[in-house]
Amino acid sequence: MATRHLYLARHGAADAFGELTEIGHRQAGLLGERLAELPVDAVWHSPLPRAAATARVIGEHLPGVPVAVAAELVDHVPYIPAATDLPPAWTGFFDGFDDAERAPGERLAAALVDRFAKPAESETHEVLVTHAFQVAWLLRHALDAPPARWLGLNSGNTALTVIEYRDGLPPTVVLFNDMGHLPQDLRWTGFPPSDLP
């Protein structure tokens, strides 16, 4: 039975202008070294500079593997829950969002799932370099969780999430937010300040 292996990664640490920092470059290189041990067929990335730069660095460790943009991986809010479905801590996050912003985000989220969250005709190993919300959305989808459950599924910069798809079976979540390739000083970037293990 053919398996589609998706290796999801949030981009490396970036500055306020969305450009990869030196830390982000180091994180991307270490993720590339880890992925070099796998039979990767393609690296897809968001069109935003921080993801594109991360994908290029990863690609340096994967000779001959195509690195290409996938518009569906762009950073966006995939789903805005109704106010009654929001945990109190998230209430202010969606202030100012209206239906004009809700609809495009939901369309992009549906396109992301339609393109990547399904079995392939043959065994494939694809790396998706994207953003925290998109990793959360694909994980939520794989777990068949309610749409609002993407909230709180946070990913660190270049943390690895792996989901497998096979015909006739529910998706298998193999890893979530794994930072084993990063030394301690490069872990937990991209999270809000808090006590972390």
Give the % helix: 25-40%
Number of strands: 6
Order of strands in the sheet with the most strands? Answer: 3-2-4-1-5-6
Count of helical segments?
4
Given helix and strand content, the structural type is alpha/beta
Radius of gyration over all CA atoms, rounded: 16 Å
Describe the structure.
The structure is a single chain. With 197 residues, this protein is of the alpha/beta class. 27% of the residues lie in helices and 18% in strands. The chain is built from 4 helices and 6 strands. It has helices spanning 22-35, 49-59, 99-116, 132-142; strands spanning 3-10, 42-45, 67-69, 124-130, 160-166, 172-178. The protein has a 6-stranded mixed beta sheet with strand order 3-2-4-1-5-6. Helix 2 (49-59) links the parallel strand 2 (42-45) and strand 3 (67-69). Helix 1 crosses helix 2 (49-59). The longest helix has 18 residues, at 99-116. It is globular, with a radius of gyration of 16 Å.
Protein traits:
single chain; 197 residues; alpha/beta; six-stranded mixed beta sheet; 4 helices; 6 strands
